[in-house]
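ARCHIVE CARD
CATEGORY: sequence design from structure
SOURCE FIELD: tokenized fold
FIELD CONTENT:
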């Protein structure tokens, strides 16, 4: 098992080799959730993830003979970047095996640290099997992303820093994939402050650790917006630590995570990936559980594909009622579209898209169905736009 001393030694090794990220209060998120929220900005690390900590701690302890052999890792991206970056810094050859559908931004960043990239398999488990095969064939040192005491000790330094900066924290909410981060953090936090509550968060699509700890049998999905914690097989070492030191585990849905990503972008002006938003997603989904508590959240990563982010922002605007799709039926005569657009403009909304539908409709042949996508200030404003269109003699409705 891991001990506080292991994490303190890791902290000494990491000093001056990575950023001591800020842990600061969020007044707005506190007002929204009802908890006193403190954010640990691990997305500000050089590789935009806490994974650097474990990788650096592991590689720093390799012997000269082991460094000469080189290292290999399997990862969906963040562990890959952490290993590749610190291997490059230490002059060690690094081979990284990544699932084939890893976001391009993570693949290219990893390749930028001079690592040899191998894309193999559709899941982390398939990538892991191939990485172990390559390690045996090429005599490389396998650097596991979570099932390794040196990795977990490095990740645990996040907990040390959070309690040093905000000693009054009484709850830590931490995303779980394989479990290395929460295992290290729980070890440090419970040693320093035995009464602190540590809550783990998984997605409903990848509840492997939740099932293992709680004895449930929730099915596993094939993909998640939080690919960084989309782990099908929980770590053996982290599982033992979680069972002993973690207070509880909760599940969040994909929509909860999307909402949290958009909220962090809008409120904190900070970019996180799906896994990095899991903690806030838990606060938004279970507000009564955390109400009035001093809660520390780890924004554990910020590597997200730009196209995925664009889709999440747009979907978030739809959920917030700031982007709406209207269907307007009217007489198909000259000037009808001009009346519709002028009415929408007068109501203070902006039109994103316009689509005429004459053939695929059950309306009378003299009528036209016009679909609009509009930007609004919120649900009440949508109602005002609909009322204005109806007042102008149009049959208008919102399409969900």
């Amino acid at each position: 098992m891991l001990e506080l001393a292991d994490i303190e030694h890791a902290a000494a090794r990491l000093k001056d080799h990575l950023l001591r990220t800020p842990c600061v209060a969020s007044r707005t998120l506190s007002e929204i959730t009802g908890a006193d929220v403190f954010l640990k900005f691990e997305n500000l690390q050089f590789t935009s993830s806490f994974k650097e900590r474990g990788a650096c701690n592991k590689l720093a302890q390799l012997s000269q003979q082991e460094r000469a052999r080189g290292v290999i890792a399997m990862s969906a991206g963040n562990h890959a970047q952490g290993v590749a970056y610190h291997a490059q810094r230490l002059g060690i050859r690094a081979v990284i095996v990544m699932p084939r559908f890893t976001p391009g931004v993570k693949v290219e960043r990893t390749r930028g640290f001079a690592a040899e990239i191998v894309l193999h398999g559709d899941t982390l488990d398939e990538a892991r099997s191939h990485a172990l095969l390559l390690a045996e064939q090429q005599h490389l040192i396998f650097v596991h992303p979570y099932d390794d005491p040196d990795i977990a000790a490095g990740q645990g330094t996040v907990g040390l820093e959070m309690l040093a900066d905000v000693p009054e924290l009484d709850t830590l909410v931490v995303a779980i994939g394989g479990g290395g981060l929460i295992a290290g953090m729980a070890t440090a936090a419970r040693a320093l402050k035995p009464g602190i509550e540590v809550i783990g968060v998984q997605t409903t699509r990848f509840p492997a650790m939740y099932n293992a700890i709680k004895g449930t049998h929730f099915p596993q999905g094939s993909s998640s917006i939080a690919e960084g914690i989309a782990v099908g097989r929980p770590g053996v070492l982290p599982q033992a630590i979680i069972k002993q030191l973690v207070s509880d585990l909760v599940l969040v849905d994909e929509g909860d995570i999307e909402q949290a990503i958009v909220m962090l972008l809008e409120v904190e002006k900070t970019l996180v990936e799906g896994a990095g938003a899991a903690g806030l997603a838990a606060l938004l989904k279970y507000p009564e559980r955390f109400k009035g508590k001093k809660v520390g959240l780890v924004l554990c990563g910020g590597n997200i594909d730009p196209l995925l982010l664009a889709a999440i922002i747009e979907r978030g605007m739809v959920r917030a009622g700031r982007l709406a799709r209207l269907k307007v039926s009217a007489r198909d005569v000259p000037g009808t579209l001009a009346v519709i657009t002028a009415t929408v403009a007068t109501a203070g909304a902006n039109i994103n898209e316009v689509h005429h539908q004459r053939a695929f409709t059950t309306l009378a042949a003299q009528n036209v169905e016009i679909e609009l996508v509009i930007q609004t200030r919120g649900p009440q404003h949508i109602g005002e736009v609909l009322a204005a269109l109806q007042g102008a003699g149009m049959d208008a409705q919102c399409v969900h």
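CARD ANNOTATION: The first strand starts at residue 23 and ends at 25. The chain is about 45% helix and 20% strand.
SHELF: design records, drawer C
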